[in-house]
Amino acid sequence: FVPYAGSEGYSPVAYLPQVAAALMARALDLEFIPTLYLMRFAGLAAMTGIIAFAIATVPELGWALLTIAMLPAAIYGRCVINADGGALATAMVVTTLWLRGVLSPPRHAPGRRSFWMTLCALTKPPNLAFVLLELMPRVGTPARRWYLPVLTILPAVAGAVLWSFGSGADTATWRMVEITGQGPDAFSSTVKLTHLLDHPLSFPAAVIGTLQEKDLGQLWRQVIGVLGLFDTVLQSWVYPTVSGLLFCTFLTRLPLTPAARYRVAIGAGITAMAYIAVVFFVCYLVFTPLDAGIVWGVQGRYFVPILSLVAIVVAAVVNRAPDE
User: Fold this and answer.
1) Which of 63, 104, 182, 219 has the smallest number of Cβ neighbours within 10 A?
2) What is the pLDDT of residues 6-26, one digit of tens each?
3) Cα(135)–Cα(204) distance, rounded to whole angstroms?
4) Of the given ranges (65-79, 127-141, 257-271), which has the lowest mean pLDDT?
């Protein structure tokens, strides 16, 4: 293992199981390959266990969460050493704890929600968008306790901001400099933020340009699973089959009044849209040259964590399900 310049931009929270496995491998004096596989199996076991906890939290969404967790992209994210597995697992827990608080207000546990929300925000920067769930008005919460949502999300926001500033938010920008031949200022987040102050429409224009030029079908196939560095493509029939199965599992009933269901759908939908906007903004700041007309670096795997929110929106709006 050697230092990888820019990797310090990622919080170690998403790698805690792999770190524990690496320490164990060091104590056992294992060679490189056994160490690598021990780390991979530790990540797979830990993140799958967290996802199982999320499924048990809201059984009404059990089949949907199980199908999301078994997507090829999701399995691959848990089996390799990266932050995708942790980002998906913690996002699922935050989502299900929020929904359980809506379904059963007496079981609302701010401390537990704050803990998981902090872990979620520290796995990947876009996951900070999940704090918006906590800001949705909750039935049964006294008006005088308006401060509870603020206190719940404060550790997550503070942790994410402090880590970003402390690490310099660097995610190996040198790679883009070498690939494109442009100077470091072309990928400097500070330079781009300054540019946005003078040209606030440049980012929305880049997003629109991306949506016009990017193959959205290919982006969705990446959500299902185009693995590795886009060099492992599944057989063509897998993508429509798995897509159909996935959306079928979103058809379930939530034991809520119509008004509450629509409120849940709005909250989940707004959070999902905010997450998408943050993904584009982070890629704009980190990977996109200053003079580019589109956003570089957007990948389908980044959107797997919001599939549970999509499932909630579909379930809340449709409110239909097969019988037993």
Assistant:
1) 104
2) 776 778 899 999 999 999 999
3) 25
4) 127-141
